[in-house]
Amino acid sequence: MWIRVLAAMLAATLTAIVILSFQDGFKVFVPGLLQGAWLTVQIAVLGALLAVVMALTAALAKLYGPLPLRWLAVAYIEIFRGTSALVQLFWLYFVLPQFGIFMDAFPVAVLALGLNIGAYGAEVVRGAIRAVPKGQWEASTALNMTRAQMLRRIILPQAFVAMIPPWGNLFIELVKSTSLVSLITLADLTFKAQQMNQATLQTVPIFTLVLLLYLAISLTITICMRFTEGWAAKGVLHGKAS
Amino acid sequence: MTEMPMVRYENVSKRYGAFTVLDNLNLDVARGEKVSIIGPSGSGKTTVLRMLMTLESINGGTLWVDGEPMTHMSKNGRLVPADARHIRRIRAKIGMVFQSFNLFPHMTALGNCIEAPITVLGMGRKEAEERAAELLDMVGLSAKKDHYPGQLSGGQQQRVAIARALAMRPKIMLFDEVTSALDPELVGEVLQVIRRIGAEHDLTMLMVTHQMGFAKEFSDRVCFFYQGKICEQGPPAQIFGNPQNERTRQFLNAVLEAG
């Protein structure tokens, strides 16, 4: 099973981090990098929550909303997919203040990355909803359910299973793009690494640790998604082809 | 004044682009009547049921259910196209069973049968479960109520689907080729259930079927569809014993030869 391989990789990564953090030449960097990694995790988790909410909202609005709402959803998806996350960060952090809207760097980071990934996620959600067989809609109609009842009780629970693997990709994408927030003054993992590197020029130990820390975060996400997938599939595919 | 039919198709037409599926269909089904619809594929017979279930729009004419227009509603003494609320109120009288079962795969047999009574009718869980258990018992599946669709045979799934539709207490039941997706040895158990509900309930039933033997024995009336029109209709004895129309004869010969 892949989950074993993943778990072994995560264990090896964490062990390597622990061993290195006791080595001379490495251990001075560890507290600072862990601080940075913690900020990275915070931005990633909050950004992911926002992304899921935005993706669901935008997908449902695009599929079933009244016309103005549909346009709004399309505009949101296309704008945030069609421009780079870096430009979006800069816009929120440096351009909006010109119009009198000021936000701290941390909420800007969560907002920009959450909206960016949410725009991709909206298409994932939409695709998964469309992939639910037509017969499920027809059966729900025959039982006289409203559109909202069908979505909530019948369609979304089934679409959920199909959404999980692509969401795993998006979450990892999100973790990696958090490195951009170093450009709007946030001291995330990448920022800390660059700062220490400029001060000490100890490139090998610093970026070895950084690599391992990012890998540990991503592997944790992948493993969590695998479990969620297994759990959700169990709920939908009882006794099918197993 | 005679009693209004349970279902009335009044000059109903259905087109897909330039292709006419149903051409000015007029059909009355009386309360409690069992009508079988037969005919070659592409003759529009499934569309007849799907329009009544509101799964297909109609391009012309009016559908009446239980004395009321379904596709239209009266407003200031005039008939205007029906709104969603009106359609839902009328649709509550109709249940449907599909060729491909369409059970909800993430719910048990019991879960499938209590879902709509609870969410749509607002029934209490306990009452819904009791009624569902009765219905599952009637279709011979009380032992399987906690099984998921994926754990049931096709015949069992279709019987759950029948119980699920009946749980909404419809006045009209539509059966759309409900045995066509089944292995031959499982057809009998489903037909047996349909026979039973036909006898026990005062249901109006419309079924599209390829089971000529069953149509002959079960229905009050058989309609033979050909190219979007009712080509011939009458009591089963006439349609199967002494068809008047050449097309009907050809169709029945072809079907009966195939066995």
TrEMBL record, chain A:
Protein's UniProt keywords contain Transmembrane helix? yes
TM annotation in the entry: 37-61, 73-94, 106-129, 203-228
Which NCBIfam families does its entry note?
A: ectoine_ehuC, HEQRo_perm_3TM
Q: What is this entry's stated membrane topology?
A: Multi-pass membrane protein
Q: What is the lineage of its organism?
A: Bacteria, Pseudomonadati, Pseudomonadota, Alphaproteobacteria, Hyphomicrobiales
Q: What is this protein called?
A: Ectoine/hydroxyectoine ABC transporter permease subunit EhuC
| The family this protein is said to belong to | Belongs to the binding-protein-dependent transport system permease family. HisMQ subfamily.
What broad class describes the main subcellular location of this protein? membrane
Automatic annotation (TrEMBL), chain B:
List, for all copies, the residue spans of the domain called ABC transporter: 7-252
Coiled-coil regions listed in the entry: none
The record's annotation in Pfam families points to: ABC_tran (PF00005)
Per its UniProt record, what InterPro entries does this chain match?
AAA+_ATPase (IPR003593), ABC_ATPase_HisP-typ (IPR030679), ABC_transporter-like_ATP-bd (IPR003439), ABC_transporter-like_CS (IPR017871), Ectoine_EhuA (IPR014343), MetN_ABC_transporter-like (IPR050086), P-loop_NTPase (IPR027417)
- Molecular function in Gene Ontology: ATP binding
**What keywords are assigned to this protein?**
Amino-acid transport, ATP-binding, Cell membrane, Membrane, Nucleotide-binding, Transport
Q: Chief subcellular site?
A: membrane
Q: Looking at the keywords, is Membrane present? A: yes
Tell me how this protein sits in the membrane: Peripheral membrane protein
Q: Does the keyword Cell membrane apply?
A: yes
Q: Where in the cell is it found?
A: Cell membrane
UniProt similarity note: Belongs to the ABC transporter superfamily.
This chain belongs to the protein called: Amino-acid ABC transporter ATP-binding protein y4tH
Taxon lineage: Bacteria, Pseudomonadati, Pseudomonadota, Alphaproteobacteria, Hyphomicrobiales
